[in-house]
Design a protein that fits this description.
single chain; 3-stranded antiparallel beta sheet; two-stranded antiparallel ribbon; 20% strand
Length: 88
C-alpha cells in the first residue's frame, strides 16, 4: 500500500470550458506553492457523472523529459513545462 494520498477538491463551474479554465488556473497556482502538485493529472467531471473525467492539460511528453503545459485542445505547437523539484 502506498503512503501517498490524493486530494479531491470539488469546485463547481457552469460548464466544461469554465471548469477547465478554473482547474488550469488552480493547478498552476498550487504548483507554485508545492512541488507535490501534478498539474498534468488534473481532470474535471460533471457533478452527476463523476466517473467521466475530462483532461485539462495536454501533458504530452516532450524531448528532454518535460511535458506540454498548454490546455488539452491547443492548436499551436506544444511547449514545455519543467519537472517540479522532487519532494523531500
Amino acid at each position: 500500500m502506498t503512503e501517498r494520498w490524493v486530494i479531491h477538491l470539488p469546485v463547481t463551474a457552469p460548464d466544461l470550458l469554465r471548469a477547465r479554465i478554473f482547474a488550469r488556473t488552480a493547478a498552476r497556482v498550487l504548483a507554485r506553492l508545492s512541488a507535490r502538485v501534478d498539474p498534468g493529472g488534473v481532470t474535471v467531471s460533471a457533478e452527476d457523472q463523476q466517473d467521466v473525467h475530462h483532461w485539462v492539460f495536454c501533458d504530452r511528453p516532450l524531448p528532454g523529459g518535460t511535458r506540454c503545459a498548454l490546455p488539452l485542445d491547443h492548436t499551436n505547437p506544444c511547449t514545455r513545462r519543467t519537472r517540479p523539484p522532487q519532494a523531500r
